[in-house]
Amino acid sequence: MTALPSSSGTTFTPRSLYPMSPQLIFGEEIIHYSHQQHALSMINLPDLFRCAGCLEDGAGKRYTCQQCDFHLHEFCALPYPNQVLKNHPFHYQHNFYFHSKPAKGGIAKSRCDICGEPMKGYAFRCGACSFSMHPCCEMLPVDIVISNHPHKLQLLPPAASSSADLGFVCGECKKRRSGRVYGCTVCGYYLHAVCAKSIVNGLYDSGIKGTEKHTSKLGAAARLASRVVSNFIGGLMESIGEGLGQALVQNVTKGKARQPKKKKKKEKKEREG
Q: What are the helix and strand counts (H, E) for the chain?
């Protein structure tokens, strides 16, 4: 599977967007501030990985530690904390700042204003309002061309994208969901921004689909296994407890039953003496 994204406007890429990161760069290796004990090497493999920065999946190009199971998307590895991002087409009225830690705000996680998914790690956040987005979503173009549709797709305004009841069924996942939507200017084809992210993070080119669904199934299986084990242990302890209780009752009963015999023997000895 191959998808070739293109943009009719400005294309935002880490190389041009971040003129110089404070990380030490040695050819294809960097010393990243979040993993200073080892150098990270640029590699390009089609296997699935979980980025230690944004905590989202990826495939293809990434910076990886050859000694640890540590990986970073290229677009997560190059920006640095509090770096300013100006004039972004998704929110050009304010500046963004890169944050390497999740937002503090109670139990509920903040959600990306582009894909609508929770933000668990690295993020770009507006310095004047609550607008925020994943590093991967920041890389999405305003216009996009994909291999399985003949026409150009444009990112729809937030008001239109958020109207799930308008019948925006994604041509990729065949579902309705929250988040921004790309729409065809010629026909009624739509593509979720969260599905378009697979072009940026390498999943589409690597032929990897449905990682979110797969992850949720694994999570559900883990929770089910945990409940089964918990119920088994609870039942076992309950059975053990019942067994101990029964044994204790039996011992007490036997003790009471034997007690009169001892008294009778003692009284008999006293009379004989």
A: 6, 13
